[in-house]
């Protein structure tokens, strides 16, 4: 018996949760339920997080959370419960299977059967943004080695566990050589450990185009957070409907399972909503908690129900569907099919061994880290880079020299092009004059001297070598 936390959520949430729980219990799921209240009522009672501290205690105690969609009230000040939950609980992997149910649900891609594994905690979603000058704002893209290792290993373990043949990685490392470069590098390192599974890397732009056009050539696709957010919706939609997809959010300790759609408030309370998305989330949960026989039984009964043409309004299509049913009747039809398998759609057979649980990340031995320079970012309203260069060259800090100025990443000094458009945000690179390292004292000296000269320095980034390897970007055109 596994104790799980359930939140029935808002809008159609309670109806689809009741249907989902009825189906999995009928299939023999061994679960005990603690129900908590999250979402609209909690938000409107004045809790901007949408969840009480007592509910957090229940979630953390049980570690497994099945969540119906919630309504985030309009207006500022309310924090997204989904984002908070993922980050607080360290749910690093977002897994979203997107499978065609053709010919029973229309899609242009009848052969499609892919699983998107999206990194869930970092990348541009760290939410660290600053305005630095009149003209320039910045969002930090943070990619960590533990983040990459955990998500890539999860993708390969998932592929092995579910008998999938290939893991594809999407990044944009031809441009972002440090951040996406690390993701790709870790992918190559870990792929080498899984010789039984094919691996490949695509640059995200052409990869995404290919996925939207010919999804059947992909199997498992792993990618950083932002790309995964966008492409997992594309994948769910082109597979047939976002209303049919579920997702899991997996951490080292806890996991959360849900439908990918929202609370559809206009459909609430009418016994109309399709419970399939949440049911798919619940099936992923059953696999995760080591009840694959129950998961398999439910999935096969669900496939059989879809195949029989028993459809809720959202996927009902005259000529293809046989019966337009409500939420409760759909659940009843799935329960009646428990023990059956689909005949046209492919039935599933889940691995009967233990749940998919990965080892915890182990910290690596730190590299040798040398400070070799500093990028001083300057807010300056001029237009001719030679002028700011002349001012910066007067900063009197022994042993340092100005080596380059870029504007939005493009080198504008020395030897820039007058055609390059410049904003008021200048990156000014100082390095050691004799090729050795520099010290933090020298950086402080540069900042002090800049302040004395009336130069508006807005931030610095230290330039490091790790184990002798340059670990910062060059200027474009450098
Ligand atoms: P939505 O997913 O709720 O609805 C989009 C459309 O899909 C609607 O036309 C709806 O009728 C239909 N639909 C969605 N799920 C369906 C189902 N199971 N059966 C039949 N039809 C279904 O998206 P929205 O309207 O943009 O958002 C509504 C609310 O949901 C908002 O408050 C939003 O913040 C919230 N939301 C919550 C989650 C979550 O909790 N995970 C995710 C997305 C949106």
Automatic annotation (TrEMBL):
One of its GO terms (molecular function) is NAD binding. Its cofactor is Mn(2+); Mg(2+). Gene3D superfamilies: 3.30.70.1570, Isopropylmalate Dehydrogenase (3.40.718.10). Residues 3-334 form the Isopropylmalate dehydrogenase-like domain. It comes from the Bacteria. GO terms for biological process: glyoxylate cycle; isocitrate metabolic process; tricarboxylic acid cycle. The keyword Nuclease does not apply. Its EC number is 1.1.1.42. Keywords: Glyoxylate bypass, Magnesium, Manganese, Metal-binding, NADP, Oxidoreductase, Tricarboxylic acid cycle. It catalyses: D-threo-isocitrate + NADP(+) = 2-oxoglutarate + CO2 + NADPH. Belongs to the isocitrate and isopropylmalate dehydrogenases family. Catalyzes the oxidative decarboxylation of isocitrate to 2-oxoglutarate and carbon dioxide with the concomitant reduction of NADP(+). This is Isocitrate dehydrogenase [NADP]. It comes from Persicitalea jodogahamensis. The lineage of its organism: Bacteria, Pseudomonadati, Bacteroidota, Cytophagia, Cytophagales.
